[in-house]
Amino acid sequence: MSEDEELEALRRKRLMELQQQMLQEQQRAEAQRRIELQKQILIRRILTPKARQRLANLKIVRPEFASQLEIQLIQIAQQGKISLPITDDQLKEILSRLQRARREIRIRRL
């Protein structure tokens, strides 16, 4: 093999690797999109429109917290621990309980 042929073979190999990586990334993105879509469908069943709006507002301010809250709401709904649909007032109560639990941070100075 000449140097040009070797170089061309390396280029083809690298191109194939990049294509594989892109394909894997697209598959991961598609799987993530499907999961998010399923989560939103469940949230629509679990929350009233007013409660969904509150959750959407929370998602703007604290996206990580809102995402964790969505997962918790789905879990408690699937376990049957709360009556459905969850109203805005019930969601407020859940949020206030979470806030109270979060505020119990103690700082000790020596």
Count of discrete structural domains = 1
Total of DSSP H or I helical runs spanning 4+ residues: 4
In total, the number of strands is: 0
CATH topology: Helicase, Ruva Protein, domain 3
Strand percentage, roughly? under 5%
| SSE string, helices as H and strands as E | HHHH
CATH top level class name: Mainly Alpha
| Structural class estimated from helices and strands | mainly alpha
End-to-end Cα distance:
73 Å
Q: Which architecture name does CATH use?
A: Orthogonal Bundle
Shape assignment: elongated
| Mean pLDDT figure | 90
Work out the helicity level: over 70%
Instruction: Let me know the CATH homologous superfamily.
Output: PDCD5, DNA-binding domain
Largest sheet: none
Please supply descriptive tags for the structure shown above.
110 residues, mainly alpha, Helicase, Ruva Protein, domain 3, 4 helices, 80% helix
Structure overview:
There is one protein chain. The protein has 110 residues and is mainly alpha-helical. It has a single domain, classed as PDCD5, DNA-binding domain (Helicase, Ruva Protein, domain 3), CATH 1.10.8.140. Helix content is 80%, strand content 0%. The protein has helices spanning 3-46, 49-61, 63-78, 88-102. Helix 1 (3-46) packs across helix 3 (63-78), helix 2 runs antiparallel to helix 3 and helix 2 (49-61) packs parallel to helix 4. 7% of the residues are buried.
